[in-house]
Amino acid sequence: MKSKSKFCDNNLATNDFIYFEKMLLTIADNQKKLFSEYLSLENFEEDIYNPKWLLSQYESHIWECDFKAKNNLVLNFNIKLEDGSLLSDVNNSKLLNGIKYFLCALSSKRYNGGKALKHTTFKTKFNTALIIIDGIISRAKKYKLAENRMSLFTRNDAIELFHDIYSQGGSSGAFDIINRVSSYLCEKSKLITDEQLLLSNSIYPTILWEPESTALTMSNEELSKARLWLAQNNFYRAANSSKYHGSLITTKLYKNVFRNNLRLPIKTTSFDALRLTPNNNSFNTEFKAVSVAINERDLKRLSISSISQYISVFKLLSVCSSENLLNIIDSSVFDVDANDIAFTKSQATSVGRYRTLPISLVFNSINNALEFYLKHSKDLFEMIELITYEKDRLFDFSTTSSGFSSFILKNASVNLIEIGLSCYTISNTSNKKNINIDYFDRLRANYGLIELYEVLIGSVLVILGAITARRQGEIIDLDINCLSPNVEPNMEIGGFDEYSLIFENRKSGDNVDREKISRPIPKIIAKIIWDFVVFKKKLTDNGFEFKNNSLLFCFAKFSISDKQVDVAKANFCLNTFCDYFETPTVKTDNGIKRFYIRQHQLRRFFAMTFFWGSGFDGLGTLSYFLGHTDPRHIYHYITENIPGEVLKGVEAQRILYGFSSKDIDNLGRLKSILKSRFGVSDIEIRTISEIIDYLEDEVKDGHISTMPNILDLKEKIESNIYQLLEEGTIELHPRYLKVKDKLGNPINEVHLSLIVKEEPSE
User: Fold this and answer.
1) Domain total for the chain?
2) pLDDT, position 686
C-alpha cells in the first residue's frame, strides 16, 4: 500500500499534494527548507471545513455566517434546482459540497498566498463569490445543474455570465433582475381579469397610469394588472394618512422572485413603473426632471478593475473542479480575463453614463450657491439659534401659528425681513405630502425660514460637489470632526492656509468598517464647514437634541426638531435650490422639464473643468477656489479625486469635440482606428461634429430631425472612443507650455495630445 504523503490531509486536493512533492524534488537545495516550511505551516494544517466566520456545522443545510456586521448572514442551501430537486438533496451532494468548499476556500491562507485576508477584503470577496454562485444557479435550467453539475458550463457561458455582471452592474446582471422581475409579474398579471382592473379604478384611482419609459419588459396593460395584484397582496407601503403611499416594498417582491437563490440581490433595483401612484412629484418639484441618465439600463456597468476582481474570485472554483465536485469538463472555462468580457465586439454595448449638465448651469449654480451662503447663512443661523433657545419658554403653539410668525418678524435680522421672511414654514400642515398651489412663488419670495435654510443646505451641497468632487454618501456622512486642522479658518494671526477634508471613502469597506481618507480643500470650503461646526455646538448648548454627529442637518417643518440629511433629504434640498434659482428648463414631448442637479453630475463637472475649461469663462474662478495656479496641480488633483471611469467618459466627450475644434494633436490616427475597429464607413467625422455643434440644440428641442438621429450617432461614436480609452488603445494626455503674453507676462497653456498604441488594420 502506498504511503501517505506528508503533505496530504483531508483538506488538500490529491492533485495539489502530488504536484507539491514533485516540485520539492526539482527546486534548489537552498530553497527546499523555505518551501517545506511554507507547506507544513498552518497554511496547510488549517481546517478548511471550519473557518472562523462559519458559526454552523459544515454539513448543515443552513449556514450562519459572522462577518462582524449588525446581523449575521444566513445562507439557506435548501433551494430548488431546475428538475424540482433541492440543492441539499443527497443526489446533489457533490454540487452542494463544491459550492460550500469554494466559499470556505475564500478565506483560507492556502488559497491566498499564505496570507490572512483583512476582514473587509474577505467580506467583499465573499459577497462577490455569492453573486457568482447565484448567477450560475439563476441559470440552472440552461446548464442542467441537477443532472450534470457544471459539466455543460463552457468558456462562452463564463463570458456571457460575466458580461451580464459587467454591463448591468454586479448582482443586477448576475440575477438577471429586469427579466426575472418582468417574467414573474407577467405571470401574476394573468391572474387579474379586465373586469377586476376596471372595478379597481375606484379604489386605486391612479392604477392605470402609463409611464414614459421603463426597463421592465411589460406592456402598459400588464403593468396595470401587476400593480393591482401587488396591491391585493400588500406589496405597497402604507402612509400616515392614506392606506397606500404607492411605493413598492422591493425586498418583499425580491423574496418571491429570487427565492431559489442563496441570498437576495445585494442591491435592490426600484422600478418607478410599478408604483401604485406615479412618481411625478416625489420630491415636490415645480417641473418634471430632465432625466439624469443616458442609456439607463447600462448605467451601473462595472469598471474594468471591478470585473477583474469578479474573475479572480471565479477562478478559485478550479479548486473544486480538481476534486471533481463541480465536474467542470471544459478546461478553458477559467481562461478568461476582463478584455474578453468588456471588449468582445458581438457583446459590446453603448456606454451607460450620467447626463452632463450644461456648463453654464453649473457655473451659475456655483455662483448662486456661494452668494446665497455668504449673504444669508449668518442671519439664518442666528434666527434658528434664537428659536431653539426660546422654544421651551415661549412657544406652546405650532410652528405655523400666527404667534410663531410674530416672533420671527420681531426678532429676525433686517436682511431677512427685507428679502421677505414672514413665517417659520410655507408648507401646509393639512396636506404635508402635497405642495400649495403658490408654494414656489412663496419659496422664491423668501417667506419661510425653514425653506430658506433648505436652500442653504442645497447651496452647500452644490459647493461641496462642484469644488471638492465628493460622492453624495461621503458628504452626507461628514461629521463635526471632518476638518483638518480643526481650527477656525478666519483667524488672521496664527491661522492656516491649507485645510483638508476628512471623510469615509464610500468605495472601500462597508457601513461598519470604511477607510478614512483626507483630501485638500480651499479655504472657502473650510469656512463653511467651520460655520456648521460652530452652529451645531451653539444649538447643543441651547439644549437642542441631535440624533447623530453629522455635520449637515435640517429641521422638521411642523416641530422644532432636527431632520437627518439622508439621500432623500439631500436630493430634496438640491431640488429646492434648483426651483429657488430657477435652473433652465427644456421643452420635450412630455412637457416642460427642469434640470435638477444631482451630486454625481457635479463630480462629473469637476473632471470636465480641466478638459474643457480653457474654452469657457469662469475657469479662473474655479482655479482660485481650488487654490492652484499651475495646471499640473489641477490635473494631479483631478486624477486623484475622480474615478477612472468618470475621467474616461469625460475624455471621450472631449476627444469627439476635438475633431471639430482641431485642438488635440494626433486625431488623424484615431479616425483610422475607429474605421478599422468599429466598421465606420468612410465619413468625415469633423463634418458630423460640426453639425452636432450647430444643430444639437435644435434636434433636442424637436425643431428638426435627422436620419440617423444625430444624438444617437454622437453617443455611438463617443461610446467607441470610450472603449478605446478603457482598453488602453488610446490615451489623452496634457502637455504644458509656458508662454508670454503681449506684455511679456508669463502664462501657462495646456495642449491636449492623443497617444495611439495600435496601428489600424487596413
Assistant:
1) 5
2) 43
